[in-house]
What we know:
- The complex is a heterodimer.
- Chain A is an alpha+beta fold.
- Chain A is 23% helix and 37% strand.
- The longest helix of chain A has 18 residues, at 166-183.
- In chain B, 74% of the residues lie in helices and 0% in strands.
- Chain B has helices at 2-33, 62-69, 71-104, 107-118, 125-136, 141-151, 164-187, 192-200, 205-234, 237-242, 250-260, 264-293.
Amino acid sequence: MALLEIRNVIRRFGDFAAVDNVSLSIEAGEFFCLLGPSGCGKTTLLRMVAGFDAPDGGSIWLDGNDVTGIPPESRNVHTVFQSYALFPHMSVAQNIAFPLRMAKVPAQEVTRRVDEALEDVSLTGMSARYPNELSGGQRQRVAVARALVNRPALLLLDEPLAALDAKLKERMQLELIGLQKEVGITFVYVTHDQQEALALAHRIAVMNQGRIEQLDEPSKLYGFPRNRFVADFIGTCNILEAEVVREAGQRTRLNIAELGEVDALAGEATRPGQRGVLALRPEQVVIGTQLAPGPDENHFAGRVFDFLYLGDVTLYVVELANGTRIEAMLPNSAPGRAKFFEPGDAVQISWRYDAGRFLAD
Amino acid sequence: MPSGRFHKWVISGPPLAYLLIFFAIPTLIMVVASFRQPGPYGGLAPLLSGAQGSAGVALTAENYARFFTNFLYTELFLKSLWYALITTAGCLLLAYPLALLIARSPKSQRDLLVLLVILPFWSNFLIRVYAWIIILGPQSVFVGAFNWSIGLFGLGPVRLLYTPAAVVIGLIYVHLPFMVLPLYANLEKHDPALLDAAQDLGAGAWQRFWRVTFPLSLPGVYAGAALVFIPAFGIFAIPDLLGGTGGAMIGNIIKQQFLDSRDWPFGSVLSIVLTVVAIGLAGVAAWFARRVRQ
């Protein structure tokens, strides 16, 4: 039995369905991510799990009990808010003690557990500070400690790292992963940042327009996006309008208008004439002046349109004969050889057939 | 930075001058007056006594001695203090729910509701107090209905006008906006996420109020309490109009000393004691408030 079960949940605001018949189940001990662009319904869904909002249809089950109509204060679910929502008039220790006091835990045990929680988030010695005396990362840790201190069945995190700078964000991600392993509490993490989701979660539900587009492990989501939205949203992806010509075993022959035919990995049941897109990750595209393509490789000529030097890699935008632009990513591993091509240079690109995936419309 | 300093003086000069001329100097005059003798027909006796400067400056502590030896005045102070405290408490109890209601209503309605709170200021203060004479008077429908309803329990009838109760009702009425506005200004700024967080962490409605909303609103409570308590302590118009003979507060006696008894030195003594007591109480309250927060 899953720890959290969301069954056919619908939430409408007027004519707009913010959450449109979503079902999913989350296992105990899982680090689960709800990922999607803003307005996709992920926060609305989270608020319904926390109890701040009620579904217009469907039900939410926690640990085998229907909690749909139960108010937040009576649910064994705690939330880390985006703004942290630390009580400014309480010290760090008082903030963390708050849920314990609400649960009428004896004073001695409160002290002990607050100390433990402070240790868990490496804030020992900060107990007397007030929230306005803490840095962003420290506040974030207090918010997590406060939400975890009385061991909820489920911890919800609503974009908790959004306000932190990139370096700190990365460190907090590692800390969150470690903390989740240590306490063993189920985390449901909402974010619009696909990199963050890929880094943190055991499983990710990609949401768009109130629906789940794909629910999978991070590597599957990245490597095998099920549709155009997921391919485009997770990482960067070249998307080319294509039509199926024929199926041949492992391969699907596609026709790309004004460019020619390419091979792609056969996807779910396709048939000739079917329209869709070819999805191709930039790091799978090889770029060079003289390429000798093998039988498994697709191959085109073009010109460098522009490039972005990103430090570890350079992203080239190559314009093909039909005006289509394809991104190719090259690692800058060799020092001093960061740049290979200038805009306007004639180049060739190629990629293995199984790097491209056909996604039917 | 001479120019920066110059600008600072240009900006702060006029208000400083105003306070000096109309507040500091008059206060000083009053302090001096409290040590002088009353003139035979009111006002003050000449500062230089005797003929041709044979004697020195005629200052006396007699006026203070009169205040401290006659228990009547201390009693009046205590009574005024008591009225002012009840008024502050009454205003707080009435204003808090109102301010909370306004602060939690939709943004589009808040301005209108605040406007309604300050609407009474648009009519004259005395006219509003005179209206209370009618409302609290024996012919009043309200008093009639009140007496009828307590009559059901075998009580009453009571008279309201020209009683201490009428004074307190009037005091609360007049000062209510001064409590509502600072409270609203405070409550409106509260982050609603804090209440969500409290609820999420297990706090029911009552706990959310006592542990989050109320402690965070304390600066507003203090500001409102000061704005109500200090003027209510020294007011004379309300007890004059609604209090009758038994309802006099210290403000009435001060007014009486200056206008009726024409004893300016003693009036000054009472004014100074009033100011010192009010400042002292405010200081104690502030000190106490800071200790509570630690």
